[in-house]
């Protein structure tokens, strides 16, 4: 079940729920909803949180089997439940009907096979999650805006939720979220422009690249900062290519290197000529050296490097 389905079951709570996610976003929402089921004046008695990395499972089981005080139900939230799967299995065969136990685990196992499972919908499709989240709030979101958010934030649902909340307020009257509004509101928008600059350089679009460079400089970035980010990003592409050649799945490379802008571009990364990638990195290092050792305007040095690169063989 997803979170909305979990909300519905609260009317007639199950004795045990299994929460499977690595996303703090979902953990927080489930935790807060579970806690809200106990009236504030009774939380000292009927609400308890355990972390089985620190707390004894025997204490947890004693609490679970104790009848709630002055209320109809006790709620218990358990972190790191995986660490006591064997000891919990006996309780799960006959859980207390007056207690609702939420077990936070990292992965599925046979121990949990019969339990109702709460999962974050669309964890394999974060782009779909962004679109459905906006639609649920009554907003139209430009596909490019949704893609930009994912490229800027990555698959962190807590941060995506936070940025979407800003967009909802910003576009309250129009109810339309555009690429422009995302870039205006999102703190990481500069990095998005850096990705766009990389794409322009890779496509030998010197005019587009110079235009993006002007925008970055106008936003307050210095030429040395841009050189550093370009070097860092092209280096990540080179490392990703080496990982792919070594047999690593592309899906595992994305979060490790944080190259979200290449989410659907595995073949593009594979096709980049190694020699040209290395040449760009060498060119960036030389430009950085010239910026530090000569009196020439650093932005002019970077413009020359971009034009020279765009004149060379296309990536």
Describe the structure.
- The chain has three domains: about 5-120, 3-Layer(aba) Sandwich (Rossmann fold); about 125-185, Orthogonal Bundle (Helicase, Ruva Protein, domain 3); about 190-310, Zinc Finger, Delta Prime, domain 3.
- It is about 60% helix and about 10% strand.
- It is built from 16 helices and seven strands.
- It has helices at about 5-10, 25-35, 45, 55-65, 85-95, 125-135, 145-155, 155-170, 180-185, 190-200, 205-220, 225-245, 250-255, 265-270, 275-295, 300-310, and strands spanning about 15-20, 45-50, 75-80, 100-105, 115-120, 140, 175.
- The strands form two sheets. It has a five-stranded parallel β-sheet, sandwiched between helices. It has a two-stranded parallel ribbon with strand order 6-7.
- β3 (about 75-80), α5 and β4 form a beta-alpha-beta unit.
- α10 (about 190-200) packs antiparallel against α11 (about 205-220) and α15 runs antiparallel to α16 (about 300-310).
- The relative contact order is 0.09.
- What is the beta-strand fraction? 5-15%
Order of helices and strands: HEHHEHEHEEHEHHEHHHHHHHH
Strand order within the widest sheet?
Answer: 2-3-4-1-5
The residue ranges in which pLDDT falls below 50 over 5 or more consecutive positions are none
Instruction: Indicate the CATH architecture of the largest domain.
Output: Up-down Bundle
The major pleated sheet works out as: 5 strands, parallel
Q: Classify the secondary structure makeup into a structural class.
A: alpha/beta
Mean pLDDT equals: 84
**Total individual domains:** 3
Q: What is the overall number of helices? A: 16
Question: How many strand segments?
Answer: 7
What is the CATH topology of the largest domain? Zinc Finger, Delta Prime, domain 3
